[in-house]
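Posting this for the archive.
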Amino acid sequence: MTRIFKSPAVDWHFKFAQKLDRVKDERLKEYYSKPLPAADTPISEVTFLALDFETTGLNPSKDGIITIGLVPFTLNRVYLKQARHWTLRPRQKLEEESVVIHGITHNDILNAPDLNEVLDEVLKAMAGHIPVVHYRRIERNFLDNALRSR
């Protein structure tokens, strides 16, 4: 017997409206006010956003984001001209193990901005898109913790 497990559907429009009412930061207000595609939008008409972070480690409560990369795409096209990449100065020091994994060195982040300095650009690039990530616990938890700490 095959069992199919379905998770409950999330009403993202409702969730964004709730967050819009609660947030105080103007950048987040703008992000949450940007409409998402309607639930009945054909997938062929949706613009997704490939989103990837490199971090100082794997623990979002003690490690930080050092790069953010994003590329908008549809099922038919990748929009490379709209791709964005930011190298950031984390609040944590780089550990040798993470440098070996991602290849980003102390010199690469020496004069990089803090996430707060580019947050407006990042949120504007993300707004209104459906994010696609390798492992949502990395991107979601790291971004959530980084925003809360700022």
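The two ends are 50 Å apart (CA to CA). The chain has a mean pLDDT of 91.
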